[in-house]
Amino acid sequence: MIRVLGLAAISAVLALTVAQPARAADDEMVQAQAGVWLIAPESGAKGCRLTFGTNVVSGGYEITGADACATPLPALAKAKIWNFTDDGSLAISDAEAKPLLRFQQEEGSPWESEGPDPTWLLPALGDVDHVPTAASLAGAWRIQTPDGKPVCDVTLTTDKDQDGTAKMSPASDCASEVGDLKLSLWATEGFGLVMLGNDGSSLSFDMKPDGSFQKSEEEEGEPLLLIRK
Fold this sequence. Notes:
Layout: H1 7-19, H2 27-33, E1 35-41, E2 48-57, E3 60-64, E4 81-84, E5 90-93, E6 99-104, E7 111-113, E8 119-123, H3 134-137, E9 139-144, E10 150-160, E11 166-170, H4 176-179, E12 183-189, E13 192-197, E14 202-207, E15 213-215, E16 225-228
Antiparallel strand pairs: 1-2, 1-8, 2-3, 3-4, 4-5, 5-6, 6-7, 7-8, 9-10, 9-16, 10-11, 11-12, 12-13, 13-14, 14-15, 15-16
């Protein structure tokens, strides 16, 4: 049953939530999160890099490099602290622990911000300062082996099916390892690209610094590359 809370009740809940201290992250979690991260709008606009450190500061752990956000993401120019919250989110705050941005993560997916204008939090990838979009990736691509042997030519489009997923079409002469998947749809998520088949099959790729893609490590079978034609 869904309950609709009144304004006073909602305000009380929010006040209680803000008052709660962020849960202490264990060393393993902190070490895993430490490093250089790209924060970039899902729209494909330019983002900026922040370095998550492991030094303990009031309210969490230190952030450096926020000056780089002054132009692309001014709201993050004062970022000084990162930490995990009680609900498993990741929060970025200023020196006074005032929240600037909060990210949530579903299993198998990157960190994504809350709100109407989603922003990704991704491990920095070379000099890349933005995430790819369907519009920027639409066109002709070739799936090939690392030594250059063609496996399947595919066309990614911005046309969408009734559920809003972008369509794609593979060539008729694809090798069976790809052709048998009957790929017809595709989507992006952060630096990832997944091709989807009619029967629930899929083929996932991760972007490389040069803008090409390689088959995700989680995928079985031989390595494959996705190269723009």
